[in-house]
Amino acid sequence: SDLYSLGIVAFEILFPMHTAMERHNSVKNLKIGKIPENFIAQCPKW
């Protein structure tokens, strides 16, 4: 639970959102495993 919350906070820091609706949709999509394409492009592979 704490690790999930940390991941959401990290996503919000690394992927700026401008509206509450955009934030809501992004978190909703993360919960089902959908990561935005432009976020994936910004992050290097480990």
UniProtKB/TrEMBL annotation:
Top-level taxonomic group: Eukaryota
Name of this chain's protein: Protein kinase domain-containing protein
Source species of the chain: Bracon brevicornis
